[in-house]
TrEMBL record:
Cofactors required: NAD(+)
This protein's GO CC annotations: cytosol
Organism lineage string: Bacteria, Pseudomonadati, Pseudomonadota, Alphaproteobacteria, Hyphomicrobiales
Protein name (Swiss-Prot/TrEMBL): UDP-glucose 4-epimerase
Gene: galE
All residue ranges annotated as the NAD-dependent epimerase/dehydratase domain in the record: 3-256
């Protein structure tokens, strides 16, 4: 039985490949390489000692998906493929509805046709919108503040509708908080193209001299030091949560055939705390200056983690120092990401 991993050449997907292979699963990766480099999969092979089956294809190509599901005898899907830049989604919403929503609809149609009825879906804490209380529990009301978030909510709704229509479907919706870090080998990690939108990749580029300083968005939030607080989670912990979700779904042990669960640590850190932690890990000064708040940002966001512990028997284990140390190790070993390093 093989697991299809869509978007498996990307940041989180490549780490998931390692975890699934090391747990003894057979996998096939399908990725259109729109935001990835297939060298990541060579690195997955180097870490695990196992060859990775790879199909360069788009999730919107339903015929190709059906051929892949049949050819490899897939029994389940872990679905990472999609576009993820909030700012870009407000400029080109159609691309986001097409890639994320239409792509997922085609993937589900292909699965229905091939009799594959289990999927884990990459959702996001962004579906909670402005927090009404903290920590965020899974039954917190959902809302979307940008097209990216709306695509995640639409897909969640699509999965809930399909699950309600037929009990043989099994869906695990995983709502990620802020994934950071890298595999501890330093062989795979986050490889953003262009100017990073997210805090951690930006900090790394200040540490290694590619950017002069970090702009800290907002210094007057009602938080302990005035800067925004987020729940950062090590990518290795995150993908271990996927493995547990896959096992729970496959064993039929889930309390319902469609569950949504938070993957976070339950602890929030401010932007300035992240800067200090990264300085400790890298032994570099991170220069910064304050800039106005970024549109759409909330002051504080962190997860309630009890449901993940109960349902998945999973809890994040790696601390902030490990997140920063592993990120820095990856960046030092791959100063230009996958592009200029040997496979
Ligand atoms: P990523 O961009 O590194 O990985 C996504 C992968 O999907 C890339 O390899 C890309 O080439 C591929 N892809 C995109 N569109 C495709 C298509 N139409 N067909 C086939 N392949 C396609 O991003 P990531 O950080 O690894 O995120 C993975 C998933 O997790 C995404 O769905 C993202 O929305 C979600 N997520 C990420 C974060 C985060 O902060 N990284 C937070 C919450 C949710
Ligand atoms: N942030 C910042 N400067 C940057 C990027 C991010 O101050 O260059 C802040 C941002 O305002 C938020 C936190 O860092 O408080 C995390 O932002 P990120 O974009 O990484 O994640 P998200 O906003 O999706 O939680």
């Amino acid at each position: 039985m093989t697991v299809l991993i869509t978007g498996g050449a990307g940041f989180i997907g490549s780490h998931c490949c390692v975890t699934f292979l090391e747990a003894g699963h057979d996998i096939v990766v399908l990725d259109n390489l729109s935001n990835a480099n297939s060298v990541s999969l060579n690195r997955v092979s180097a870490i695990t000692g196992r060859k990775v089956a790879f199909e360069a294809a788009d999730i919107r190509d339903q015929a190709r998906l059906e051929a892949v599901l049949d050819q490899y005898g897939c029994s389940a899907v872990v679905h990472f493929a999609g576009l993820k830049a909030v700012g870009e989604s407000t400029k080109d919403p159609l691309a986001y509805y097409d890639n994320n929503v239409v792509g997922t609809q085609r993937l589900l149609s292909a699965m229905a046709k091939c009799g594959v009825r289990q999927m884990i879906f990459s959702s996001s804490a962004t579906v909670y919108g402005e927090p009404k209380y903290l920590p965020l529990t899974e039954d917190h009301p959902t809302s979307a503040v940008n097209p990216y978030g709306r695509t995640k909510l639409m897909i969640e709704d699509m999965l809930r509708d399909i699950a309600a229509s037929d009990p043989s479907w099994r869906f695990g919706i995983l709502r990620y908080f802020n994934p950071v870090g890298a595999h501890d080998s330093g062989l795979i990690g986050e490889n953003p193209l262009g100017i990073p939108n997210n805090l951690m990749p930006f900090i790394t580029q200040v540490a290694d001299g590619r950017r002069a300083e970090l702009s800290v968005f907002g210094k007057d939030y009602e938080t302990r030091d005035g800067t925004g607080i987020r729940d950062y989670i090590h990518v290795t912990d995150l993908v271990e949560g996927h493995l547990r979700a896959h096992e729970v779904l496959a064993s039929g042990a889930a309390p319902s055939n469609c569950f949504a669960v938070n993957l976070g640590t339950g602890t929030g850190y401010s932007v300035l705390e992240m800067v200090r932690a990264f300085e400790r890990a890298s032994n570099k000064e991170i220069r910064y200056s304050f800039a106005p708040r970024r549109d759409g940002d909330v002051a504080e966001c962190f997860a309630h983690t009890a449901m993940a512990e109960k349902l998945l028997n999973w809890k994040a284990e790696r601390d902030l120092d490990a997140m920063c140390r592993d990120t820095w190790n990856w960046v030092c070993k791959n100063p230009r990401g996958y592009e200029t390093t040997a496979a």
